[in-house]
Design goal:
Layout (H helix, E strand, L loop, with lengths): L4 E7 L3 H12 L7 E6 L6 H8 L6 E5 L5 H14 L5 E6 L2 E3 L3 H12 L7 E7 L19 H8 L4 E2 L7 E5 H7 L11 H10 L4 E11 L15 H14 L5 H21 L3 H17 L5 H5 L22 E7 L5 H11 L9 E7 L4 H13 L4 E6 L5 H11 L4 E5 L4 E2 L3 H10 L4 E9 L6 E5 L5 H7 L12 E3 H6 L10 H11 L4 E12 L4 H4 L3 H16 L5 H16 L2 H11 L20
Family: Belongs to the glycosyltransferase 2 family.
InterPro entries: Glyco_trans_2-like, Glycosyltransf_2, Nucleotide-diphossugar_trans
Keywords: Glycosyltransferase, Transferase
Length: about 600
């Protein structure tokens, strides 16, 4: 299958160059599946031109902002929109970048041939000026301290290991983008590409691909050492933010890059014709960078008109009676009888049936389960799409595969051993159609059979309460949720966060502006099997918990204090004896309402 590339171009008042850049993208030997163009409130006729031309170019996806958010904000918007087009790779380019015809194909070739096990996170083109010389402003630097193995693996495909790259032309692994988040929109004017590319590459592979050539049509040939004047404030502030708040560099790397920054600043001062302006920028930048933090992307981008409400592909209100997909994942340890009961309860017995079922088989399964899957697909009253994954990937990656196969914008989740009540979708779908991006419900826990009720979980139903508590616990019961596919994709999908993939996804959705909702009524019966309480604790889940909390911190979702609190409370819960955990869970969670204690996320995940 061809590697799916989605290109992102950010533009502001360079219509002629934009036309040339888009024409070059359309002419690629490996053409992008979609081209997202972010217009940063241009005033030179670009907006009107794009509105007309987009009608003739079905691959173009134009996003028009009300104010100029710079490259940082523009690429944050563009990447979020690009993820809704299900890319394997996202290609980021400036509007004055003209790629040669094979530029994309060479980047893709390097990505696919480097290693099937560990794909590069970032691939950078060779950037030349109009006369063919390598452009000093955009030359990727070789990775300091690259190991011999790293250099050899890169050289084998004609590449060089790098640690950072420019937004002029880089191609990023979409899964790493989903995992590491979007550019920080508040890095206006400076260091946005440095912070973001190093964040993607840290712990991963970054490559310079000389065979991929793009022309950067800047007005002059030069580097970033030119006298910045008043703009020096942004350089200093953003570097201070990066060295003190970003996790894109290790401590050792911060020392190395910090020293290089000081040397460059010294050269800038030495060459400046107005050092007083630079001194003011230096002092103000240090003060602001050390005493403040970058604002959340939604706070930066909302004034420019970027919100889920304004997206063309996700209208707020949908006509009633929307078709929807039912997404179920099964694996080798699932009971065929339980799967049959879950399937029938969510399809045949529903008053409002799904338009299709996407049944993901996560790895090989025993003959009995395989036979049941075939029987369900054959006898289902609605179409069944059987997605087979050769090797077991785990629940998160399996659901991401299934989500890609869903044909409808609205997707309902269901576990392979739970039981939906007959009016579940009658009650949940209207909430989505009325404007919510995700709606869950309460659930009833049962033992041997549905009538053997052992507990009940009632989630918070007030949207503001959901937004408040989600940094501390999962306010959604995963097997009960129905969501908009575009909202999930914009948040990066499930990714591979073992045992915590749903909580990470829902938190990123809500943090990114998705509209949450819950129904208190239990609409799913949740099977509590043997070992349920053991699975809620232990060192394995503790590792997942700590990884989740680090991810929240890296993404800026939690503060340092909230991070410490979560590690102490949630991490401690994983280590208490199983008998204590069972008693606490029954007393504080499974039989309480929406204001229950925060120590345990209300997950619906079984092991997969």
């Amino acid at each position: 299958m061809d590697t799916r590339v989605v290109a992102v171009v950010v533009t502001w008042n360079r219509r002629d160059l934009l036309e040339e850049s888009l024409a070059a993208l359309d002419a690629q030997s490996h053409p992008p599946a979609r081209i997202v163009v972010v217009d940063n409130a241009s005033t030179d006729g670009t907006t009107d031109w794009l509105a007309v031309e987009a009608k003739a170019h079905e691959r173009w996806d134009v996003v028009t902002l009300r104010s100029n958010t710079g490259g940082a904000g523009g690429f944050a918007v563009g990447l979020e929109q690009a993820l809704t087009h299900e890319p394997d790779l996202v290609w980021m380019l400036d509007d004055d970048t003209i790629p040669t015809r094979t530029a994309a194909a060479e980047l893709v070739a390097a990505w696919t041939s480097y290693s099937a096990v560990r794909r590069p996170a970032v691939l950078a083109s060779r950037v030349v000026w109009t006369d063919g010389r390598d452009h000093p402003m955009n030359t990727p630097r070789a990775k300091p301290g690259a190991t011999r193995a790293e250099r050899h693996a890169a050289a084998a495909i004609g590449c060089v290991p790098i640690r950072s790259a420019s937004f002029v032309s880089i191609m990023c692994d979409a899964q790493v983008v989903r995992d590491r988040g979007l550019p920080v929109a508040d890095y206006f004017l400076w260091n946005d590409d440095f912070e973001y590319s190093t964040r993607l590459i840290r712990g991963n592979v970054g490559l310079s691909v000389p065979a991929s050539v793009v022309e950067h049509k800047t007005k002059v040939f030069g580097s970033t050492d030119a006298d910045p004047g008043e703009r020096f404030f942004y350089e200093v502030r953003n570097k201070a933010w990066m060295f003190t708040r970003s996790r894109s560099l290790s401590l050792a790397e911060k020392a190395v890059y910090g020293a290089a920054t000081l040397r460059r600043w010294a050269r800038t001062f030495a060459a400046s014709s107005d050092r007083a302006v630079l001194r003011r920028g230096l002092l103000r930048g240090l003060r602001t960078g050390l005493l403040t933090a970058p604002r959340p992307n939604d706070a930066v981008l909302a004034p420019a008109g970027w919100s889920r409400e304004t997206r063309a592909d996700a209208p707020r209100v949908l006509p009633p009676g929307q078709p929807f997909s039912l997404l179920v994942s099964t694996y080798w340890n699932d009971d065929p009888g339980y799967l049959r009961e879950a399937f029938h309860s969510s399809v045949q017995q529903q008053f409002r049936r799904p338009g299709e079922v996407v049944l993901v088989q996560d790895g090989p399964v025993p003959p009995e389960l395989a036979a049941e899957i075939a029987h369900l697909a054959e006898t289902s009253p609605v179409p069944v799409r059987h997605v087979v994954i050769d090797a077991n990937l785990g629940l998160g990656p399996a659901l991401d595969r299934g989500l890609q196969a869903c044909r409808h914008e609205i997707v309902a989740r269901m576990d392979a051993d739970d039981v939906s009540v007959p009016d579940r979708f009658v009650k949940q779908l209207p909430v989505i159609e009325a404007g919510a991006d995700i709606v869950g419900s309460g659930l009833t826990e049962f033992g041997e059979h549905v009538g053997d009720v052992v507990g009940r979980r009632t989630p918070p139903t007030d949207p503001d309460e959901i937004r408040r508590v989600i940094r501390f616990r999962d306010p959604f019961n995963h097997p009960t949720v129905v969501y908009r596919k575009s909202a999930v994709q914009a948040a990066g999908g499930y990714t591979d966060m073992a045992l915590m993939e749903d909580y990470l996804l829902f938190t990123r959705m809500v943090d990114g502006g998705a509209r949450p909702a819950n129904l208190a009524e239990p609409l799913v019966n949740y099977r509590v099997g043997a070992g349920a309480y053991a699975r809620r604790g232990g060192t394995g889940l503790l590792r997942s918990e700590l990884a989740l909390q680090r991810r929240f911190r890296d993404l800026g979702i939690t503060t340092r204090r909230q991070y410490a609190r979560n590690v102490l409370v949630r991490g401690g819960y994983r280590l208490v004896p199983e008998a204590v955990r069972k008693t606490a869970y029954r007393a504080l969670i499974a039989n309480r309402g929406g204001d229950h204690a925060e120590g345990e996320a209300a997950h619906g995940n079984k092991e997969q």
